[in-house]
Amino acid sequence: MMKRIIVKLVATLTIMSMSVFCSKENSAGYIWLLSESGTVDYSAQDVQLGYKVILDNGSSVSVTADADWIKIGTLGESYVTLSVSRNDSRKESRTAEITVGYGDMAPLTYTLTQGYLRPEIVLSRLSESVDCQAQEIFVPCEILNPIDGEEFNAETEQEWFEIILEQERGGIRLQIPENATAEDRVAEITFTYDYAETKTLALVQKTVKEYAVINGIKWAVNNCGDPSSPLGSYYNWKERETACPDGWRPATSKEMEKLFYYGSAWTSHNGVSGRWYSGMNKYAENVPQIFLPAAGGCWFGEFREVGQCGYYWTDALFNSGDNASGYGVKDYAIQIGVGLSTRDNSRYSLRCVQDL
């Protein structure tokens, strides 16, 4: 009885084995691509095209490409490596079709797109704000990956200012007239370059005066900080380094020294005592000047002398960095040199400047 069961079991296994073998031989086979398309940049690189054989009938996978800039590598069990050469075109991408076949199955297609080294317009900032005064400003425009013979362009739909292209200098010069209106004026300047993405600069001209040109640089007409206060804000040594608005910087010791050379008598402006300063030009009402209020200061956490004296940072340190050379606005002298503490709990006024 036991012998008869064993014989039957062997016979059954043999039939199952033959059935599986016949099924594999007779299967049409099926292969599946992990992706139907892909995109790469312009550089030379290797790309893996993944696939999976679902019904293995013993056939071989075949891969071909219709472009000579793609080389087919050795086929693996689940992927093939495509060696893509660099696209040297500066103006257009390119596309290839990779055909994947398996047995009698209809071939599958994988589409590979390779980009090109596009030019790029680079603006240092995407917005520009100017005050109400008539002025000229320069806006840098850099072209990365330029194309020989191509030049950038800049246009606007507004007519209240003029754009002058300066290709060799690498930017545009804006001739902006005085804004004598009661409202801010706004405009958009569109930069274009063949085959590059367009960039836009937002320009705003305000109705208020924000600076005076003294000694060859722009001086802010107000202390840095709170615009609602005629005194501005107060900063410690570390804070002053980054307190100025974008495009502006703290005045240096030499610049402050020249600014304080000529000044007005002790007076009042916007309800605050202080002096007008005109730099190296003898003070008069018709020369460029700015008002420095006697905003006081904060010594080791204690504010004092508001309305009596103003203390202004420079960039010069002394006493092993424990103090900085500053300038004081006082009633009895036009120019006073003062030592300001650089500790975190000591804060003073800051006036910002901008290079022409």
Q: Unreliable segments (pLDDT under 50, ≥5 consecutive)?
A: 1-26
Helicity, in percent?
A: 10-25%
Instruction: Please state the average pLDDT score.
Output: 90
So how many helices? Answer: 3
What is the 3D form? elongated
What is the assembly state of the chains in this entry?
single chain
- Widest β-sheet, arrangement of strands: 1-3-6-5
Report the biggest beta sheet as strand number plus sense, adding barrel if it closes.
Answer: 4 strands, antiparallel
Strand content: 35-45%
**Cα distance spanning the termini:** 110 Å
Q: How many E-type strands?
A: 30
**Rg, Cα atoms, Å:** 37 Å
Protein structure class: mainly beta
Topology:
Blueprint: H1 2-26, E1 30-33, E2 37-40, E3 45-55, E4 61-65, E5 70-75, E6 79-84, E7 94-102, E8 105-114, E9 120-123, E10 127-130, E11 135-144, E12 153-155, E13 162-166, E14 171-176, E15 185-192, E16 199-205, E17 211-214, E18 217-220, H2 237-240, E19 249-250, H3 253-259, E20 262-263, E21 267-269, E22 272-279, E23 290-293, E24 297-299, E25 302-304, E26 309-312, E27 317-318, E28 323-330, E29 336-341, E30 352-355
Parallel strand pairs: 2-8, 10-16
Antiparallel strand pairs: 1-3, 3-6, 4-7, 5-6, 7-8, 9-11, 11-14, 12-15, 13-14, 15-16, 17-18, 18-30, 19-30, 20-22, 21-22, 22-23, 24-25, 26-28, 27-28, 28-29
